[in-house]
Design goal:
- There is one protein chain.
- By secondary structure, the chain is α+β, with helices and mostly antiparallel strands.
- It has nine helices and 19 strands.
- Strands 12-13-15-14-16-19-17-18 form an eight-stranded mixed sheet, sandwiched between helices. Strands 1-2-5-11-7-8 form a six-stranded antiparallel sheet, with no helix packed on it.
- Helix 3 crosses helix 9 and helix 7 crosses helix 9.
- The chain is globular.
Length: 410
Amino acid sequence: MKNAFIFAAVLLFLLLSGCKSLKLRGFDYERSVDTRSRPIEQQDKRIFSIASAGIFADNRFDGARLNGFVKNGFETYQAIIDPENTPINPSPWYAFRLWADSRHNITLELKYTHSKHRYSPKISRDGRSWTSLNENLVRLNTDSTMASILLEIGPDTLWVAAQELHSSGRVKKWCIDQALNPGAEYLTLGKSRLNRDLIGLDIGIGDKNKKDIIAVLSRQHPPEVTGYLAMQAFVETILEDNPLSNDFRRKYRVLVFPLMNPDGVDLGHWRHNAGGIDLNRDWAYYRQPEVKQVANHLVKECIRNKSELVLGLDFHSTYNDVYYTPDHTIRSTLEGFKDYWLMGIENALPDYEAHDSPGPATSPTSKNWFYRQFEAEGITFEIGDNTPREFIQAKGRAAAIEMMELLIFR
């Protein structure tokens, strides 16, 4: 009887010590953040009319941000750009349409009420194909709270935006298209605060049981389009029909959440979700529904399939390309992975040097949550606001290939 008791106690200890992913846990961080919901200011969706000049602007589309439009001098007009609430990160997103009864060459002032200018204007005639405005046509005022640009407008609609528009509808179509590939399944795992779908992809060939999981996140912050573009290239490379990608999908399962903040994206927010919160500070007690549902889904999939989550990649954008990685205080299940991975990416891209910025797990970000919840490697993959789009594609693809080559023999 005594031996049976000892055996049971040892078995229970082993089960408990190996259950790091068996329930969603809350965490106290040294740099804690209050993520209880705060009010946001809704945009007035409408046509703004300067009737005397026959010039119009509007924000009646997903991803738009325009809070006012006024005449400010001869052939000079001002677009007023307010954030959803404050305090807020200096990521002043804008997107609107312009047209006129006749041809005009105008000066358009982008007036930011709570930030300095950050995103170089893009223009489009259809809202899908975009061109960066010539920098010689952009002028900043003395404190950079206003940018003036020269535009030619007329009866045909001209779109102006901080970055290319990738609204929830467009991201959903991309996911559906990717799910046509072998071993890819389209997911709807829940609803956002404003009842938009939380969507994803479940990638892997064969039995899910005991298959290690890689998690991929994107668009926690609405304006961070360049990170989303890198994520697209990364995922599309994993889904290619070649020996490496096919073998990788047989060995690993990849869970992709490309649009963590659909409300913020469609509402044209600078940073926050519809609860007025930075989602990438909510990975401690999951007060926002988007983070809570994705975190729960990852934990439940590990439980259901007796799997380990070994790597979490969160794609973002900032001023310059950088990787936020775990420092020496963090020992994950993929010890040494990030050094070999970054070295491989450097070798794959001519004249490229990866900027590694290691740090401790002291704040409630997704990167740190992957380690705290699963003891997994967590990396924030940041792309510069103005990184050339061709290089973003090459970098996302190289990152996927190097990851697969490292992990396939693990």
